[in-house]
Structures are given as structure tokens and as C-alpha cells.
């Protein structure tokens, strides 16, 4: 079964958890390009998901620089000449930026060496002892390491008495890493997804287990898969970052494969989930604002899927099952936040949904785990983490506030819904994962002590509220060294995202702890557009409300400085992906607030006129976040009002460091090159006009990496970056 509903709650921000060869627990996007030597799975018994990536969509067609508005191309011959010219311009700019980066980076070798040694020291100190993920079936334990899958008896797993079931190299998949494992209930079959670093799509390999494990079938271009019965597998096919078809394949005497479901709307992404009790497979078709679920009865896997509730615009719902009742996590009713409801399987329409539990206002539901007699909700409220334990026996709810330093949950696999204990980890950017357990029998929280991992004691966590332009209170989480004096003289690194209803990533990173130890202040601004305060927080910062996120960010940085956390000349701003829109916009409107900005694969320039139209034409799912400039001129004008590229002007800018990847399908490199060129020209024009002695000339640096991913990378790759 899957681990919770987090993959659904985060919309389409799909990711898996994986381990590097140093057993470093990380979150990595399903589409990331990671060599198998550097990354191993955690998604053994379920696909968890985090808040780190933009939603999947169509591949943006390969384009170079846009022609000016109104330019006409009268003949095919001239069009080909124009394309050739653009290609040469693109290659020249690419070569120029690479040479510039090589020249600049050479001056940082000593600093790079020192930082790398420090990060490796912290990694070995805090993360080396993370355990490998395991799947337990009765007395059997399955686990993966170095591209191999092993089987052992539970009592022998630590003694080295293991059988090898699968080896990527022996079967010709040497360039792939293992992404997900699903084992049939009778343990006769094992389905494995493999992914290489040169493809966005995974391959599913089905092994027949026994005394001599053998490959039974290979299915290309697969995203998610689940066993309906011992010998019936359902899976989704992936093409161009979209999943719209569901297939069923059988491994009985009469083997066959057939199409079960097709999603006609390109805005919707389809995946498969198995309820905790293995009673149903759910076919989930989700956009960012609407969802629809079909049920496959695992007792009758050849019957047509049954619709739970027809899609209704603005209605999101997800399904679990217990005792012949569907438990429905949904936005149905007022307010439009998540509620837990239930309905009989036989009459599942929303007219029959009954409320079980409703969240408090401005509370974020991070995840939900269903057990035989209990349900655990993992919640965020005003930056603090909580557990709400719902008892279906006593019909009571117990709320447990978790340690103040904790900022993120990391759930562990619970393949048996009858278990009496729920295990999870708590972490923060500067606190390594710490294991906890909730016992249903004892009704209490148990901290799992690990002597090998030192406890962080010198870091102080502060939670603030900044008043935005419209008087809305915006949360900020601040970390600093308890021993630091004169905080107004310390360097400050501010983080922002604010899009797609996704929370800022606040899981542990060695580089964040290193900065704290060296006296830095870290601040995380939970602006509107993100999901930290629930669905309404996202709604209040998307489409025609995007500027609210920018106002929030300005208010947060201003408050930090007013309270004595650093000052503008020591402040840097960091953002990734869609977070670059707000960061880049702040650079244009209030450049005096920061001294430097770091952008990682950020979309600062999809937005010249014809860029905008083509971008949204081929990325229709993004219209739910940014609006539809294809059909609405007001929307086009609004996007232009904050677009980081459109609003560059001759003024004093902070220094900017941008990381980009040559083959990033979500943010084409040509757009990043155009943004850097225009920003650099504006900064230099301003410097030439002022020409005062000692005047500020910013560094505008672009690091173009030949290989890499829009999403998180392995420990080794992130260390190099």
C-alpha cells in the first residue's frame, strides 16, 4: 500500500524518497535524473510525496529566442534562415556563459574545498547511520542496496544471510536506478520501476519469484503501478510528462493486457493508489483544483472501474477504505479546506457524504494514515506540527503538539493496516531526521533514541508574523546560532517559494546547518501562493492574486531587518523553480532590500508576449496557477506587471547567481540565457551612468550544468552544486 495520501494532497508534485550510497535520506522528484550508483529507493511499499517540484505538464517545445511581436516571416526559406540564426545566437551565448562561469569559479577553489570538506563532515556525522528501507511480508524481509534487491528472513537480515532476487547490471539496466517496488500479496511476483538519467520515463520490470527468479515481463514508459490480485497488475503509462492511460495486465495462463481508463483532459494527471487494507485500487485523475476517483474492486479485478463521484469544478477528493465504508478526504462544503468524510461503498456520491472531522481554520493537512481502528492526521498550524489521532472505536480525537523545532514530517512505510504503532520522522533545515512512534495501545508519543546521531542544541528557532500590504499576517520561520552576538551584523539567507499550494522545503540539509554554525541567520517566508496555511492560502496567492505573494515577501524581509536580523547589505534571497518569479520580481521592485540572489532552475523568463502564449498553450495545467493569458488580455497584462523579465530596468541590482540545466524540459535554457543577458545589461548601464568611485557593480553569474534535473539530486550531485 502507499504511504499516506501526501502524493494526492500535494496535487501533482510527485516525488519519491531515495537513499544515496551513503544511506542519505533525501526527497527526489520522480522525473529527476540520478545515476543508480548515487541513489537508492525508499519507495518500497508506497510512493510518498513532498512539496518540492512544479506539477508535471507537457514538454515545452524546444525554442530559442522569440521573434519580436509583429514580425512576419513571408517564406519558408526565410523562416529556416531565421531558425538557423537563432541557433547560432543560442550556441554563442551558451559558450560565452560557460566560459564566463569557468573564469569566475576558478577564483573560488579554496572556498569550495573548505565548504566541501565541512559538508562531508556534517553528512558523515548526522546522516551516515540512516537505515535502509525494508518491506516486511510475514517472516520475509525485502530490501534494496546498490541496484540489487535482496530477500532475507526477518531474524537473519542483519546477519548477512540473504538471497539476491534482482540485479540491475545483470539484466542489462546498468545505467538505471530502482525507483519503486511492489510485491504481490502471495509473494509470487515483484514489480520494479527503473529509471535512467537520460529519460523522463521509467521502465517496469516484473519478476517471477521462487527458487530461480526470472524476468516475466518488461513494460516501458510507466509511472505508477499496483497489484490488484496475486497475478493482476494495474499501471499508468507516461508520455511527455503526462499520465492519461491506465492498463491492466495479467500473469495467469491466459496472459493479456488491456486499456482500462483514458483521461481526455490534458489538465489532469492520472495515478494509481492501493487502499491501506488492499480492498480497492483507486484510479485518481487530478488537476490542481479538481479530482475524480474510480474504484477497482481487488476481489473482482476484471470488472469495470466504478466512479465514486463525477468531477465537479473546484471539488478535490481522495479515497481510503475501512469496514465497507469509503473514507473521503475532500474540500466539499464550506470552508473549502480538507475534511474527512465517509460514505457507504454502494452509494458513494457526495449527497451521501457524512462529516467525520473538519480541520481548524488555517490548518494545513500534510498527510493522512488510515489504520484498522484509527486514523492519524499530520497537520501544520502557524508553523507548528501536530498529530490528530482519530479513534473509530471511542469516536474521540486526540491532538498532540510536536516539538517546537520540528518543521517537516517524514512518514515511514506501514504495509499492515492492523499495526498498533505508527512510525514517522521529524526534521527541520538544521535538525537531522529524528524518529518517533505513536502507540495506539498506550495512546502516547515515543521518541526513538539513536545514540549515533548527535542532538543539535545550539540552534534557536523563532516564529514571526509579518504584516503584508493588505494587513494579512504572513508566517516566518527563523533559525540562528544561540551563541551569536549582534545579529544585525550577521549574514541572512531568506528562502521563498509561494506557488502551486506547495510548502517551502524545510527538510534537513547539511549546508543549512553549516551556515548556522558559521553564524548565518536562515529565514523561511511562508508567503501566499504556497500551502502552509491550507488551501485558501494558496488560492489567495495564485492567478489574479500573484502580487500578494510579492507583497508578503517584501513585508517579511522588512520585518526581519526591523527586528535586528541582519541588514540589507548582508542579506541574500534564495528561490528555486516557480519561486524565482517572486524573487525576480522583488529584484525589480525593491532591489535595495537584498545584496545577492540565488536562483535554481527558476522561471524568471517564460514571459515575452509570444513566450507567454506558447508557454501556456503547451502547459495548460499551469493556467490554474497563473491564469489563462491565451483567452484573457487582462490576465496577460497582469502577468506582465510582475514578470521578472518584462520589468528589468536600469537600476542598481543585487548580485545574482543562477543554476540551470541544458536539457531541462520545464524551464528551457534559452529563456534563462535571455534573462541573464537583459539583467546584466541593465546593471552595467546603471553602473556606467553613475560612474562614481566605489559604486556597486553586481556579479550576474550563470552556471549551466550539462546534466542534472529540475528536481532534487543525489547527495553527491547536491554536494558538488
TrEMBL record:
GO terms for biological process: proteolysis. It is found in: Cytoplasm, Cytosol. Residues 94-444 form the Peptidase S9A N-terminal domain. One of its GO terms (molecular function) is serine-type endopeptidase activity. It comes from Uria aalge (Common mure). The gene is Prepl. Belongs to the peptidase S9A family. Its EC number is 3.4.21.-. The keyword Protease applies. GO terms for cellular component: cytoskeleton; cytosol; Golgi apparatus. Serine peptidase whose precise substrate specificity remains unclear. Does not cleave peptides after a arginine or lysine residue. Regulates trans-Golgi network morphology and sorting by regulating the membrane binding of the AP-1 complex. May play a role in the regulation of synaptic vesicle exocytosis. InterPro entries: AB_hydrolase_fold (IPR029058), Pept_S9A_N (IPR023302), Peptidase_S9_cat (IPR001375), Peptidase_S9A (IPR002470), Serine_Peptidase_S9A (IPR051543). Residues 507-684 form the Peptidase S9 prolyl oligopeptidase catalytic domain. This is Prolyl endopeptidase. Keywords: Cytoplasm, Hydrolase, Protease, Serine protease.
Amino acid at each position: 500500500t502507499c504511504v499516506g495520501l501526501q502524493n494526492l494532497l500535494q496535487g501533482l508534485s510527485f516525488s519519491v524518497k531515495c537513499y544515496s550510497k551513503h544511506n542519505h535520506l533525501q526527497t527526489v522528484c520522480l522525473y529527476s535524473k540520478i545515476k543508480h550508483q548515487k541513489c537508492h529507493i525508499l519507495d518500497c511499499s508506497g510512493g510518498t510525496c513532498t512539496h518540492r517540484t512544479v506539477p508535471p505538464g507537457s514538454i515545452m517545445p524546444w525554442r530559442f529566442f522569440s521573434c519580436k511581436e509583429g514580425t512576419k516571416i513571408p517564406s519558408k526559406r526565410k523562416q529556416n534562415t531565421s531558425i538557423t540564426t537563432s541557433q547560432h545566437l543560442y550556441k554563442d551565448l551558451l559558450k560565452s556563459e560557460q566560459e564566463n562561469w569557468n573564469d569566475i569559479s576558478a577564483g573560488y577553489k579554496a572556498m569550495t574545498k573548505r565548504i566541501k570538506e565541512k559538508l562531508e563532515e556534517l553528512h558523515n556525522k548526522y546522516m551516515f547511520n540512516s537505515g535502509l528501507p525494508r518491506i516486511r511480508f510475514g517472516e520475509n524481509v525485502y530490501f534494496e542496496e546498490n541496484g540489487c534487491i535482496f530477500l532475507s528472513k526477518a531474524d537473519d537480515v542483519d546477519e548477512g544471510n540473504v538471497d539476491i532476487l534482482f540485479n540491475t547490471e545483470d539484466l542489462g539496466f546498468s545505467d538505471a536506478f530502482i525507483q519503486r517496488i511492489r510485491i504481490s500479496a502471495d509473494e509470487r511476483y515483484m514489480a520494479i520501476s527503473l529509471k535512467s538519467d537520460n529519460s523522463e520515463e521509467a521502465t517496469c520490470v516484473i519478476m517471477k519469484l521462487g527458487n530461480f527468479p526470472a524476468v516475466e515481463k518488461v513494460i516501458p514508459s510507466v509511472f505508477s503501478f499496483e497489484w490488484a490480485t496475486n497475478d493482476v497488475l494495474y499501471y499508468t503509462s507516461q508520455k511527455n510528462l503526462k499520465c492519461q492511460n491506465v492498463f491492466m495486465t495479467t500473469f495467469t495462463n491466459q496472459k493479456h493486457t488491456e486499456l482500462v481508463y483514458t483521461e481526455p483532459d490534458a489538465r489532469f494527471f492520472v495515478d494509481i493508489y492501493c487502499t491501506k487494507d488492499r480492498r480497492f485500487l483507486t484510479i485518481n485523475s487530478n488537476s490542481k483544483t479538481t479530482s475524480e476517483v474510480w474504484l477497482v474492486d481487488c476481489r473482482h479485478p476484471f470488472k469495470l472501474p466504478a466512479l465514486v463521484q463525477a468531477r465537479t469544478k473546484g471539488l478535490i477528493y481522495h479515497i481510503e477504505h475501512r469496514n465497507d465504508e469509503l473514507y473521503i478526504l475532500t474540500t466539499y462544503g464550506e470552508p473549502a479546506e480538507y475534511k474527512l468524510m465517509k460514505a457507504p461503498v454502494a452509494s458513494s456520491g457526495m449527497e451521501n457524504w457524512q462529516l467525520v472531522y473538519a480541520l481548524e481554520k488555517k490548518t494545513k493537512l500534510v498527510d493522512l494514515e488510515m489504520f484498522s481502528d484509527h486514523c492519524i492526521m499530520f497537520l501544520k498550524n502557524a508553523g507548528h506540527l501536530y498529530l490528530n489521532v482519530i479513534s473509530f472505536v471511542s469516536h474521540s480525537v486526540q491532538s498532540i503538539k510536536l516539538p517546537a523545532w520540528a518543521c517537516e514530517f517524514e512518514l515511514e512505510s506501514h504495509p499492515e493496516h492492523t499495526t498498533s504503532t505508527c512510525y514517522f520522522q521529524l526534521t527541520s533545515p538544521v535538525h537531522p531526521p529524528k524518529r518517533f512512534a505513536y502507540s495506539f495501545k498506550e495512546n502516547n508519543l515515543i521518541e526513538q533514541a539513536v545514540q549515533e546521531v548527535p542532538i543539535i542544541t545550539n540552534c534557536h528557532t523563532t516564529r514571526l508574523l509579518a504584516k503584508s500590504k493588505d494587513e494579512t499576517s504572513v508566517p516566518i520561520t527563523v533559525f540562528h546560532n544561540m551563541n551569536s552576538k549582534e545579529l544585525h551584523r550577521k549574514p541572512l539567507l531568506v528562502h521563498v517559494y509561494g506557488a502551486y499550494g506547495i510548502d517551502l522545503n524545510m527538510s534537513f540539509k547539511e549546508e543549512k546547518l553549516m551556515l548556522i554554525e558559521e553564524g548565518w541567520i536562515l529565514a523561511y517566508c511562508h508567503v501566499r501562493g504556497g500551502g502552509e496555511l491550507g488551501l485558501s492560502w494558496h488560492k489567495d496567492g495564485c492567478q489574479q492574486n500573484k502580487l500578494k505573494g510579492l507583497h508578503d515577501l517584501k513585508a517579511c524581509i522588512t520585518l526581519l531587518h526591523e527586528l535586528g536580523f541582519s541588514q540589507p547589505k548582508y542579506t541574500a534571497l534564495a528561490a528555486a523553480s516557480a519561486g524565482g518569479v517572486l524573487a525576480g520580481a522583488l529584484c525589480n521592485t525593491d532591489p535595495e532590500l537584498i545584496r545577492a540572489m540565488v536562483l535554481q532552475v527558476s522561471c524568471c523568463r517564460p514571459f515575452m508576449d509570444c513566450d507567454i502564449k506558447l508557454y501556456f498553450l503547451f502547459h495548460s495545467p499551469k493556467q490554474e496557477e497563473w491564469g489563462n493569458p491565451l483567452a484573457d488580455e487582462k490576465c496577460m497584462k497582469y502577468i506582465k506587471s510582475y514578470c521578472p523579465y518584462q520589468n528589468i530596468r536600469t537600476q542598481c541590482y543585487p548580485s545574482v547567481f543562477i543554476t540551470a540545466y541544458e536539457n531541462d524540459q520545464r524551464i528551457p535554457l534559452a529563456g534563462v540565457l535571455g534573462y541573464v543577458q537583459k539583467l546584466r545589461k541593465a546593471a552595467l548601464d546603471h553602473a556606467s551612468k553613475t560612474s562614481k568611485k566605489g559604486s556597486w557593480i553586481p556579479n550576474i553569474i550563470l552556471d549551466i550544468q550539462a546534466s542534472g534535473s529540475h528536481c532534487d539530486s543525489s547527495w553527491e550531485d547536491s554536494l558538488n552544486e
